[in-house]
């Protein structure tokens, strides 16, 4: 069956839903497609369920940090993994139905199935053919293929969040935010945890000085972080798994083995576009993602893209939201607005949280004023029972503008938003002190970071 639409959206994640909401009042005929349950990664298998696990972990860990410091020694808390997973499901189980119902109420036709292009304006999904005047691609991302023997034995973070019984020994492949966040959760739930990272530096997109402090906090929690350990295979062994890595030695390299009950993929994600047949639509791909300009337009002027499948921007929910808005405005009003990523923060929800916005710079930078503070002994850190905290602020002294901020410690996730707002509004670094002292918040340490 062939249907004609003014706008076709592929993907119901953050970018797709945002785009749909913006165009739904236009009076245009709109269709939306998804190959999985409606909602996308963030609410179903990413940010939101992950934060449920993290929030409960933080409650338990926070209580235990104060045992013997006002909390009785016989009141130590533990994580009940099975009930935690059941609680997590209360946030995800009904969400797809609610989202699809809401889209239908907007007047949008909904389709289910794996979509692909037949030509520049025709999409096939199941037995249906949809022709679109405009098309928005928001297909998201998926774990990258590791191309190693035994890859089929590796689970994903999504699989981990569906596991009813927590394995005793867990190995994470890769030193990105997925591995770090879940490592902090499962370690505090009682699992033995090892992170195997292929190169020298973990969390390479974050400030290295702040990352070093997070590594100390992670190791103090009992998480083993091993770098320069590329995984070359995973094998079944009795009731567990055998992980082989290649390690460099003075004379060359040697193979090391590690044993686990579960191996989790945390080695990065790539755009989920491989079977869209984008070449038939004239859509250019580079580095495994869809090339877009500042208007979110692809090489086909009638096709736009946003979110994790797009090459532009980083894989963050706020970026996907922004790109969905920008693309919708430009489809409805002509290419009239460009994406501006200034002041978009990111965070790694470990214990403690690490948050970042803007550029990084070494402590001895000759281009910027760099203020690094080890805040481990500050009262606000000690009151939270945290042993490791730090901040780094990068300032362009020529105009008193903050170029970057990086925080590890209590309230880092909230404090970074203040720096982000200051950067986005173009305020001066000196304005922060006036703002915080005038309007006290839980982030009252901020003036002392400058």
UniProtKB/TrEMBL annotation:
Pfam families given in the database record: Pyr_redox_2, Pyr_redox_dim
Superkingdom of the organism of origin: Archaea
Domain FAD/NAD(P)-binding: 5-324
GO molecular function annotation: oxidoreductase activity
The entry's keywords: FAD, Flavoprotein
InterPro entries listed in its UniProt record: FAD/NAD-bd_sf, FAD/NAD-binding_dom, FAD/NAD-linked_Rdtase_dimer_sf, Pyr_nuc-diS_OxRdtase, Pyr_nucl-diS_OxRdtase_dimer
Residue span(s) of domain Pyridine nucleotide-disulphide oxidoreductase dimerisation: 344-442
Family: Belongs to the class-I pyridine nucleotide-disulfide oxidoreductase family.
PANTHER family cross-referenced by the UniProt entry: GLUTATHIONE REDUCTASE (NADPH), MERCURIC REDUCTASE
Protein name: NAD(P)/FAD-dependent oxidoreductase
């Amino acid at each position: 069956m062939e249907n004609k639409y003014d706008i076709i959206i592929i993907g119901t994640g953050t970018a797709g839903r945002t785009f749909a909401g913006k165009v739904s009042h236009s009076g245009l005929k709109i269709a939306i497609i998804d190959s999985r349950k409606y909602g996308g990664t963030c609410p179903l298998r990413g940010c939101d369920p992950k934060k449920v696990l993290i929030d409960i972990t933080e409650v338990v860990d926070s209580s235990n940090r104060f045992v013997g410091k006002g909390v009785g020694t016989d009141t130590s808390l533990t994580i009940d993994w099975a009930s935690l997973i059941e609680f997590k499901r209360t946030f995800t189980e009904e969400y797809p139905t609610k989202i699809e119902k809401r889209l239908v109420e907007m007047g949008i036709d909904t389709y289910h199935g794996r979509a692909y292009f037949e030509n520049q304006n025709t999409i096939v999904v199941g037995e249906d053919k949809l022709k679109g005047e405009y098309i928005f691609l928001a297909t998201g991302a998926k774990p990258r293929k590791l191309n190693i023997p035994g890859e089929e034995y590796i689970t994903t973070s999504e699989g981990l969040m569906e596991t009813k019984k927590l394995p005793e020994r867990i190995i994470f492949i890769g030193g990105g935010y997925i591995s770090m966040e879940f490592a902090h959760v499962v370690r505090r739930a009682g699992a033995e945890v090892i992170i195997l990272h292929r190169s020298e530096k973990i969390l390479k997109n974050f400030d290295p000085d702040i990352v070093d402090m997070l590594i100390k906090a992670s190791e103090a929690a009992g998480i083993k972080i091993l770098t320069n350990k590329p995984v070359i295979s995973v094998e079944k062994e009795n009731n567990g798994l055998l992980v082989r890595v290649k390690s460099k030695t003075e004379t060359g390299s040697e193979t090391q083995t590690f044993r686990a009950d579960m191996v989790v993929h945390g080695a990065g994600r790539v755009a989920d576009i491989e079977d869209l047949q984008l070449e038939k639509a004239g859509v250019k791909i580079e580095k495994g993602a869809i090339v877009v300009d500042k208007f979110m337009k692809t090489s086909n002027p009638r096709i736009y893209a946003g979110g994790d499948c797009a090459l532009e921007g980083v894989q963050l929910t706020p970026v996907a939201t922004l790109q969905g808005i920008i693309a919708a405005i430009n489809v409805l009003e002509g290419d009239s607005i460009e994406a501006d990523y200034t002041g978009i923060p990111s965070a790694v929800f470990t214990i403690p949280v690490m948050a970042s916005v803007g550029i990084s710079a070494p402590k001895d930078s000759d281009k910027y004023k760099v203020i690094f503070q080890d805040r481990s002994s500050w009262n606000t850190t000690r009151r939270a029972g945290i042993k490791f905290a730090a901040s780094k602020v990068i300032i362009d002294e020529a105009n008193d503008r903050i170029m970057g901020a990086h925080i590890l410690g209590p309230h880092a996730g909230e404090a970074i938003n203040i720096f982000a707002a200051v950067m986005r509004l173009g305020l001066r670094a000196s304005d922060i002190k006036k703002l915080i002292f005038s309007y006290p918040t839980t982030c009252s340490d901020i003036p002392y970071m400058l």
